[in-house]
Amino acid sequence: MPHIPLEEHLPGITGLLEYRQDTAAPIRVLTQILLRGDSTLTQGERELIATLVSHRNQCRFCTTAHTAAADLLLHEAETCEAVKQDFETAPVSAKMKALLAIAALVQQNGKNVTTEAVDRAKKEGATDMEIHDTVLIASLFCLYNKYVDGLASVTPTDPAFYTRLGERIVNHGYTRLPGGYDHLKK
Questions:
Q1: What SS3 class is residue 145?
Q2: What percent of the chain has pLDDT over 70?
Q3: What is the distance, to the nearest Å, from the Cα of residue 77 to the centroid of all Cα atoms in its chain?
Q4: Structure confidence by residue, pLDDT tens digits, 20-62
Q5: What pLDDT does residue 16 have?
Q6: Which Pfam families match (predicted)?
Q7: Which of 49, 64, 53 is nearest to 13 (CA)?
Q8: Per-residue pLDDT tens digits for 63-116
Q9: What are the C-alpha distances in Å from 169 to residues 71, 88, 112, 150, 159?
């Protein structure tokens, strides 16, 4: 049960963002830029970063939502599961493994990111912008995970909910739907 009154038809972060649309607006813009904007990292790779951080933070809502989005963007489900289990042995590029290692360090504590971790990513071909964005995506998802869990927002258990949410994320990104979310009321 959420710690504050939220719209029942809007579980997870959506209800929190609707609760306070003025603070949600810059969060949505930043997320849209980082996860859907121009980048040399694919949208699927950026969703993998979000998934890994959320999984490590044990945020079930965000992990399941971003796993669904990553699976759709990658057109398969094995990579995301492998990344959550052990990104170092997952079927991703050496550059992506190095970036995921940085994301994992950020998730623990930003000060854990070392020169060696950054040098590894650069050696594997990561650009300064990719390293920057990896740190910022990881940091943003630490915020989201704490936001969702800190206010005890509703976490659905029905896998079909996350399939629909993943489709919404992939098809509409992170901006607020123009008509809001009343269509989701049951």
A1: helix
A2: 99
A3: 16
A4: 999 999 999 999 999 999 999 999 999 999 999 999 999 999 9
A5: 95
A6: CMD (PF02627)
A7: 64
A8: 999 999 999 999 999 999 999 999 999 999 999 999 999 999 999 999 999 999
A9: 12, 27, 30, 23, 15
Q: How far is CA 5 from CA 9, 27, 149, in A?
A: 12, 21, 15
The C-alpha atoms of residue 52 and residue 107 are separated, in whole angstroms, by: 9
- Residue 29's identity, in one-letter code, is V
Cβ atoms within 10 Å of 131's Cβ, excluding its own: 18
Query: Which amino acid type is present at position 101?
Result: A
CB neighbours of 110 closer than 8 A, spacing ≥ 6? 135, 139
Amino acid at 112: N
The tokens for 182 are 């009343």
Amino acid at 24: A
Residue 111 sits at φ, ψ, to 5 deg, of -70, -10
Residues 122 and 152 sit within 8 Å (Cβ to Cβ): no
Residue range 151-167, pLDDT digits in tens: 999 999 999 999 999 99
With 0-12 / 13-18 / 19 or more C-beta atoms within 10 angstroms meaning exposed / middle / buried, residue 89 is: exposed
